[in-house]
Amino acid sequence: MADTPAAPQAGAIDVAAVRALFPALHQQVNGAALAYLDNAATTQMPVAVLDAMRRFEEHDRANIHRGVHTLSQRATDAFDGARAALKRFVGAGREHELVFTSGTTEALNTVASGLWAGGPGHAWLREGDEIVVSGLEHHANLVPWQHAARRTGARLRILRPDAEGRVHEAGLQALLSPRTRVFAITACANATGERPPYEALLAMAHGAGALTVLDAAQAVGHAVPALSRLECDFMAFSGHKMYGPMGTGALVGRRAALERLYPLRLGGDMVEWVSFDDAGYAGLPARLEGGTPNVGGAVGLAAAARFIEQQGRAAIDAHVHQLRAHALAGLQSIAGVRVLAPHAQEAALVSFVADEVHPHDIGTLLDERGIAVRTGHHCAEPLLTQLVQGPTTRASFAIYNTHDEVDRLVAAVAHAVKALR
């Protein structure tokens, strides 16, 4: 008599049922079933998100706020409803507001540029100020601060990670001073999976009088930070990393902090009045949302948030951690393979290098077996230069990935390393 399969744990993900909700997963790539392990770059979208966007485009598509006709009013209601749903999703409080953006990059640029673009007497950043950025960051949370420092005469200081890719509270304490005006950090390093103690670090910087910025792009799909419990002035995230549409995202933060930002996009719907000589800007959030918004994308982003909530955040988090632990053990068993940040148990990705083998070659051979991974510097070149002096191969996991796919990954990496050496 065959053994009875173990019953799933309470709250566990029914992966087979979930996979049925994602049309893109059901295809062959190079003659093999697709194993999509590039989720840190972009997740796939479930039917619920696709249907929500399609319903809007087929029935409610119109410009918002300025129309008195029925479709415009329905579109406005959908847009405002999406904003409210996403504020609940990230745990925003009454003191917070959410601004729609095209993603994390635009959100972080809105903050970094908005803090100096107001000109003398209005800018938060001035000559002699200091900006502290962690050394774990995606370029989108580093390059805008480099630019802000150049434009204002502020000094950019880096909270450097140790040899294992960790940042520490003591390191930040040594950098903070009365001149510190901004502190920016990621909730999860996209290149290594390192999960810094961002709650404590944000609190330290806030206590020093700095505005605090959190890049939550890599956390929002499985470990959503509760904003109201953080000493966080600005938090940014992207829709395409949380089962939502590309080109969507948000900047959410304290109203008092958002009010400090000079708007980057000037024009329609962000003004209260305009004359030939001057203009009066609208209040939040409209002031930071100039131009026709991506209403369908906002609807899809809210649908993605509902999907995550329905599946259960804790269940998704536990599932991707198990996949990561499985992949870590398998990859570490291959001679000559080094996994970055092996201690990062709360990660949803593994990034690794192999002796004498280029990551791009590994990625190409994996693709021949239908396995999609990411290779390169992952837009975090300074961090990877410090840790491995070059690019890596990265596999990243989502709610729909399976342990069988992890086994395929490990076997394919072992084959590739052997063949390429």
What can you tell me about this protein's structure?
- The protein is globular, with a radius of gyration of 22 Å.
- The chain is 36% helix and 17% strand.
- α2 packs antiparallel against α9, α4 packs parallel to α5 (143-152) and α11 (359-367) packs across α13 (403-420).
- The strands form five sheets. Strands 4-10-9-8-7-5-6 form a seven-stranded mixed sheet, with helices on both faces. A four-stranded antiparallel sheet has the order 13-14-17-16, covered by helices on one side.
- α7 (198-207) links the parallel β7 (180-186) and β8 (211-215).
- It contains 13 helices and 17 strands.
- It folds into two domains: 15-40 and 313-420, Aspartate Aminotransferase, domain 1 (Alpha-Beta Complex); 50-310, Type I PLP-dependent aspartate aminotransferase-like (Major domain) (Aspartate Aminotransferase, domain 2, 3-Layer(aba) Sandwich), CATH 3.40.640.
- Mean pLDDT is 95; it is low at 1-10.
- It has 421 residues and is α/β, with parallel strands linked by helices.
